[in-house]
């Protein structure tokens, strides 16, 4: 898969490394912007207050599948229902919310776990399959919380609960699946 990460920091750079190790072709775009025309999927991993600014410097986004990984630590544009909806306004394609509830500082410890940790995600139907594949290729098990209408709840989960616990892996499973 051809992936473009918009953001080269802990999340964007860390996932890019993991996806390259899984055999994907990854292009990394930073603050200077760039072209995502050749990408099959775009990861948006920039501070929440700069999503529109960052995507405004990227060409070739129209209709692309995008995965938004932002959390509300750097502001929120209240014009949008969620950060994922803000991303969708720039790409006009299917969007997923994922990786925002996973700690980048723990990426190097994923393989050391007894079982794969979980990765919560919300997605448009047309983004679901790609998102689940990239979650698996990053070393996690995908855990759906439904459609994109649940993206804001997933964004709020991090500061309201997960942020209070600290750096952890987590696993959600239906009875009988652990």
Written account of the structure:
The chain has five helices and nine strands, in the order E-H-E-E-E-H-E-E-H-E-E-H-E-H. A seven-stranded mixed sheet has the order 2-1-4-6-7-8-9, sandwiched between helices. It has a two-stranded parallel ribbon with strand order 3-5. The chain has helices spanning 10-21, 51-55, 83-91, 125-137, 151-165, and strands at residues 2-6, 25-29, 34-35, 41-44, 58-59, 65-68, 95-98, 118-123, 141-144. The mean pLDDT is 93.
What structural keywords apply?
single chain, 178 residues, alpha/beta, seven-stranded mixed sheet, two-stranded parallel ribbon, 5 helices, globular
Structure summarized in a few sentences:
By secondary structure, the protein is α/β, with parallel strands linked by helices.
Number of strands: 9
CA gyration radius, whole angstroms: 15 Å
Largest sheet: 7 strands, mixed
Could you name the ranges where pLDDT drops below 50 across 5 or more consecutive residues? none
Judged by helices, strands and strand pairing, the structural class is: alpha/beta
What's the arrangement of strands in the largest beta sheet? 2-1-4-6-7-8-9
Mean pLDDT: 93
Helix and strand topology:
Blueprint: E1 2-6, H1 10-21, E2 25-29, E3 34-35, E4 41-44, H2 51-55, E5 58-59, E6 65-68, H3 83-91, E7 95-98, E8 118-123, H4 125-137, E9 141-144, H5 151-165
Parallel strand pairs: 1-2, 1-4, 3-5, 4-6, 6-7, 8-9
Antiparallel strand pairs: 7-8
């Amino acid at each position: 898969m051809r992936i473009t990460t918009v953001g080269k920091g802990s999340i964007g750079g860390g996932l890019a490394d993991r996806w390259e190790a899984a055999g994907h072709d990854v292009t990394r775009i930073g603050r200077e912007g760039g072209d995502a025309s050749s990408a099959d999927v775009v990861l948006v991993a920039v501070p929440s207050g700069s999503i529109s600014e960052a995507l405004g410097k990227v060409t070739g986004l129209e209709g692309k599948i995008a995965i938004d990984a932002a959390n509300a630590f750097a502001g929120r544009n209240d014009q949008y229902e969620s950060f994922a909806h803000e991303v969708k306004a720039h790409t006009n394609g299917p969007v997923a919310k994922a990786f925002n509830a996973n700690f980048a500082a723990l990426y190097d410890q994923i393989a050391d776990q007894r079982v794969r940790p979980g990765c919560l995600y919300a997605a448009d139907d047309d983004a679901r399959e790609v998102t689940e594949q990239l979650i698996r290729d990053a070393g996690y098990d995908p855990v759906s919380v439904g459609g994109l209408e649940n993206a804001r709840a997933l964004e709020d989960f991090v500061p309201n609960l997960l942020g209070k616990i600290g750096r952890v892996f987590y696993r959600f499973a239906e009875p009988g699946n652990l």
